[in-house]
Amino acid sequence: MRGIVYLVATPIGNLADISKRALETLAAVDLVACEDTRHTGKLLNHFNIKKKLTSYHEHNEQARTEELTEFLKQGKSIAVVSDAGTPAISDPALRIVQRAHEIGAKVVAIPGAVAFVSALIVSGLPTDSFFFGGFLPSKKNERRRRLAEVSNVPATLLFYETPHRLSKSLIDCLEVLGNRKAAVARELTKLHEETILGTLEELTEKFSSGDIRGEIVLVIDRIEIANQKSQIANEKSLPERVAELENEGIDRKLALKRAAKEFGLPRSEAYRILQAGK
Ligand code: SAM
């Protein structure tokens, strides 16, 4: 009989957000695999849980997964936790989940806090359809390329951000996505929790000094419905449409002008998307 992997969500700030089932599971398993044994040790201490801990983070994930898999083969149970929130969401866990499935061990979710879900629901932006993109790339060119890729996704966009990158990312979001509505959700569930709403232009201006601290989720409105329709009707991205028009013999300037009109975008914005998509 194989063991069980429990993916246990922990709070993203407020310790009262831990679930009863999470505590019962952490108390019952044979081993807790966590990103930082000191951090999780403190959490378990707070709830008077004494448990064997082993580190499981991005630097030892590969080797440690094999050890954990052996453990499962012996019929033992493991709780996987990350420093905050839900394991496997921009955090380690995916590998052990895949290995557990391969050896026929059961994988069970013990759900709880996820930062991007809290950010989405407080942002006031549509929740019917959303796209979570994890962390945006740290390099400017890659970040702009990534933004261009998701520009036409007909869903509210969510990204994790670090305080020192927020200002630069906001500038790129504004230039690649256009001036959409957005929200910066900061320190969710904590003492200094706040959600700052505005257009990307306003938020870029507000955070231009780079003076922001804490943990951040960036929430951005979807492309306008008019643009979405044009995208769906054409089933093409703006750079593809420009290339198509050029292939028809239209010069680049005119192709861009026409594509911008079809996508309902100002020409300058269409030009930026075209450049970012290169
Ligand atoms: N596994 C976590 C989850 O379920 O949300 C995410 C871990 S990821 C390494 C850490 C990032 O999540 C932070 O840089 C920040 O973008 C976001 N985050 C975590 N806690 C947060 C909080 N209390 N408020 C806002 N964002 C938070």
Automatic annotation (TrEMBL):
Listed CDD domains: RsmI
Any single Gene Ontology cellular-component annotation: cytoplasm
Keywords, alphabetical: Cytoplasm, Membrane, Methyltransferase, rRNA processing, S-adenosyl-L-methionine, Transferase, Transmembrane, Transmembrane helix
Enzyme class: transferase
Positions of the Tetrapyrrole methylase domain: 5-203
Keyword Membrane tagged: yes
Compartment(s) of residence: Cytoplasm
EC number(s) recorded for this UniProt protein: 2.1.1.198
One of the Pfam families matching this protein, by short name: TP_methylase
GO MF terms held by the record: rRNA (cytosine-2'-O-)-methyltransferase activity
Reactions catalysed: cytidine(1402) in 16S rRNA + S-adenosyl-L-methionine = 2'-O-methylcytidine(1402) in 16S rRNA + S-adenosyl-L-homocysteine + H(+)
Transmembrane segments: 113-136
Family: Belongs to the methyltransferase superfamily. RsmI family.
PANTHER family hit by this protein: RIBOSOMAL RNA SMALL SUBUNIT METHYLTRANSFERASE I
Protein name: Ribosomal RNA small subunit methyltransferase I
Organism: uncultured Pyrinomonadaceae bacterium
Primary gene name: rsmI
